[in-house]
Amino acid sequence: MKGLMQDWPLLCHKIIDHAATYHGEREIVSRSVEGPMHRTNYRAIGNRARQVAKRLEKDGIAFGDRVATMAWNTWRHMEVWYGILGLGAVYHTLNPRLFPDQIAWIMNDAEDRLLFVDLTFLPVVEAVADKVASLEKVVVLTDAAHMPDTKIKNAVAYEEWVSEVDSDFAWRDFDETTAAGMCYTSGTTGDPKGVVYSHRSNVLHAMAAAQPDMLNLSSRDRMMPVVPFFHANGWSTAFVCPMVGSTMVLPGAGMDGESIYQILTEERVTMTAAVPTVWLMLLQHLEKVGGALPDLENVVIGGSACPRAITQAFQDKYGVNVIHAWGMTEMSPLGTLCSIKPDYAHLEGDDKLDLQAKQGHPPFTVEMKVTDDDNNALPWDGETFGRLKVRGPAISSSYYKGRGAEQFDEENWFDTGDVAHIDKHGYMEITDRAKDVIKSGGEWISSIELENLAVGHEDVAEAAVIGIAHPKWDERPLLVIVRKEGREPGKEDILGFMRDKIAKWWMPDDVAFVDEIPHTATGKIQKTVLRDQFKDFRFPDT
Amino acid sequence: MKGLMQDWPLLCHKIIDHAATYHGEREIVSRSVEGPMHRTNYRAIGNRARQVAKRLEKDGIAFGDRVATMAWNTWRHMEVWYGILGLGAVYHTLNPRLFPDQIAWIMNDAEDRLLFVDLTFLPVVEAVADKVASLEKVVVLTDAAHMPDTKIKNAVAYEEWVSEVDSDFAWRDFDETTAAGMCYTSGTTGDPKGVVYSHRSNVLHAMAAAQPDMLNLSSRDRMMPVVPFFHANGWSTAFVCPMVGSTMVLPGAGMDGESIYQILTEERVTMTAAVPTVWLMLLQHLEKVGGALPDLENVVIGGSACPRAITQAFQDKYGVNVIHAWGMTEMSPLGTLCSIKPDYAHLEGDDKLDLQAKQGHPPFTVEMKVTDDDNNALPWDGETFGRLKVRGPAISSSYYKGRGAEQFDEENWFDTGDVAHIDKHGYMEITDRAKDVIKSGGEWISSIELENLAVGHEDVAEAAVIGIAHPKWDERPLLVIVRKEGREPGKEDILGFMRDKIAKWWMPDDVAFVDEIPHTATGKIQKTVLRDQFKDFRFPDT
Ligand SMILES: Nc1ncnc2c1ncn2[C@@H]1O[C@H](COP(=O)(O)OP(=O)(O)OP(=O)(O)O)[C@@H](O)[C@H]1O
Ligand SMILES: Nc1ncnc2c1ncn2[C@@H]1O[C@H](COP(=O)(O)OP(=O)(O)OP(=O)(O)O)[C@@H](O)[C@H]1O
Ligand SMILES: [Mg+2]
Ligand SMILES: [Mg+2]
């Protein structure tokens, strides 16, 4: 027996229609790439998105074609995003911080036909455009007045391009499992892999993300996604905000502490989201200028483990609640958020910070388990760690072109590559990446836990732990340290600080001081590169 | 091009799994029908639901079979509900307050094979069981100790019945468009019509309903649905609460003001939901005993227009925020909620109450329009009223057995039968039912507006307005009044109070005083019956 309910496919462009209809006058405030602040609203964005779709069609872009964007978070990126979606084409967000060769490889892999690019990234595109055979046109997200000379063939200014048509365009209608967007993973553990979202997965993900125990976004929020739309599907903010009618504040290219502080304050932002490094910059700036954050209520921190010191500073010094989040490009991306359930409502001080160091619990639509290497489920005791596997309607079933097939099993469980434990209330904590975990005498040592501990030392700016081959134990941990400016801690200062705080056999066998730790384009420690740098390293007594 | 995301069907029983896993120890507190309070949690409910499914299967209940419930809101109702769902059978909630003949007709129409019934309603079932040929077994929701003698064939006590099996049962897997539940409309305007929910529609509806601008339910809420599970899909509380992990407080058979007050206070309920008549009873009780509501934060009021006096009393006297809601059995049921968007955040006092008298704005997944009789869309000016039509994934595409086909058009718009206007910010206000609107000289007069005005008079307990045939104007309004106990207002007292507050031609032509106004089983004014009572009425001068 079938239900007798309407066949109303979950299509992303219905989200912008909803926003335009019920939250039409809610503002989208952007720091434009050209400089000045720009203000528009959902009604206007909805209209302009239709215009974009109509104009794309005029360029021959059709259902299923990939259209790339290499752009900051601005209103134009929003218009373009929905224009592509409403035509049934596929948005493909490019990370401009990747190496040009990687970008060219990715664009060729996706066969992007058209590219929208911000002024900032024109040099990047100049370096790759010739290497992408499928690329027919480059639309520069600016107006004629700001259009620079460029050697790129078929480069046009966005405002002139789009103004050739009006906004009288009827969204296309199609199956909800149609591809909506593409995003490649950050490339932390190897080459980026292509993830293909569907309209259904984006919509369901946004519906789950809006809930009170997740992002808790309402029409009264003024949300600033600092996380770029090109990082892991923009943490879905381009969908959640219009779905619930939040005001959007878009920081454009201003990603330094001062710019973030300025826009947070001037636009009375109530909620924001980004990776830890962004917040470190903001906190340093606040410290320097003696700033305050009276309007900000919540900050979402994810992408890498959120250091305890950041959580503490936001909460204790600035009265801003921290929501630690874990996600993956393959999960659309939100997996868990660390909101506080009644089971832990009694926690205070250090105990509360301990809880908030966990990555949190998932919404309905995300299933999790931890298993040993033979796929046996492990207990949820908050200690026993294993491979974290997930399942849900907004989680990849495969990578583009069938890569990485070994991460997917017949029951749809996706192996995240993360190592984690889960406690009895369903709070998950990442202890490592499977590829980064240090295998010492048959047991596992968590590199993340050692790093978190080491950065607690007042003279340490950044820490990374990698496994170094050891004749007796297989692998033993090496601690790599970047010292804070002007500080000169010695090996024993740091090891002494760590001793007694962890099991003896977890203690690093040595400490190496470096000027810089390599990072990925999304700000994560690039252990593949670090391991390569230390490939000839041997421990003193081996 | 297809997305590469998992095929994870939206199935209702995944909701109870999520609750059992991530909110396992969250309580479900019920006033049992036998008397004492009963406490359980989501983990236990999840297990017992599997036991119910396994036991149903032993009785031969299979995929697609209809299984009825005639029960109060208690933990047992929850277990049974999910047990039915997880087997792929179809829950069918029966309204015990309907006439026995109506109940028998509905059960025959649905071909219910098994019925779960609360002790309270055994007499009702005794009156109908023989008339329902498909009915094979009646499970009385109690234990052997409380099992009464009954003449019903094949009646068994629930606890003994279910204990014959263990909870080792694997949920069935099937397409998300499979029928999940049935509920017949309240029968206000004619015979009840069968609505068939799918798993998909229930899940999507719950996801939309949880959002901050809708029910705003989190794991920290203690939610008490006073609205019975059998009224319009229980306003979906049986899905939303476990989805987000709210504590559930279930009032069982205690629906009077005193019982509601007691459980609200003792269980520190933070949010509750019911029709206006329930709240009238509570407010009267509070007044009598000088009560307070320190824990209650929000009360959802819907099913009929919420009188301004109720909103005012909750907010001003008791500090409880009122959320006016509009829904229909056909909409799963939530259509709009009147949360306050930034566009109206400046309103205070009477202006705010005016806004809250509106039924509100819809979540993403509900589309609305108002049209004239020729299906032309009318402007959203907050004045021009017309037929309210809706569209969405949790809205009926047809009634059971194809009844009422004229309410559905080719573009999937469902004609609600309500008359409404919508303002520029998307706030909808019901002005009447299409069948109740008074057609005077080619223009429409809203019966609801006249009723709302009349009950504002201090001597009026209840008011209903119906159209009476008029030789010159086609129809003119007659105001039917129930006086408050001990009060004796005359016709002119009431008309004088109304005059100047509405257009002159809207003024009722006469007032009739009665002892009682007829109500439906869900507490709505039954205008069909009222019109019948006044079918021989003529206005003095006609
Ligand atoms: N809050 C967090 N704490 C710890 N790790 C996190 C957190 N959030 C995200 N991560 C890490 O980021 C990963 C997802 O990142 P992303 O999808 O951007 O690509 P990547 O895994 O870094 O790159 P690639 O898959 O190409 O190697 C997670 O699998 C996890 O390892
Ligand atoms: N907040 C509200 N204000 C005014 N009317 C409301 C409100 N909420 C619900 N209603 C009315 O209730 C109707 C839905 O009720 P329900 O589905 O229980 O059946 P019914 O319409 O009363 O009965 P039937 O369809 O069988 O005649 C709506 O169409 C509307 O007329
Ligand atoms: Mg990865
Ligand atoms: Mg109806």
Automatic annotation (TrEMBL), chains A, B:
The record, for InterPro entries, names: AMP-bd_C, AMP-bd_C_sf, AMP-binding_CS, AMP-dep_synth/lig_dom, ANL_N_sf
Keywords of the record: Fatty acid metabolism, Ligase, Lipid metabolism, Metal-binding
What residues does the AMP-binding enzyme C-terminal domain cover? 449-524
| Domain AMP-dependent synthetase/ligase, chain residue ranges per copy | 18-400
Signal sequence extent: none
Q: Which GO terms describe its molecular function?
A: ligase activity
What family does the Swiss-Prot or TrEMBL record give for this protein?
A: Belongs to the ATP-dependent AMP-binding enzyme family.
UniProt-recorded name of the protein: Long-chain-fatty-acid--CoA ligase
Species whose genome carries this gene: Hoeflea poritis
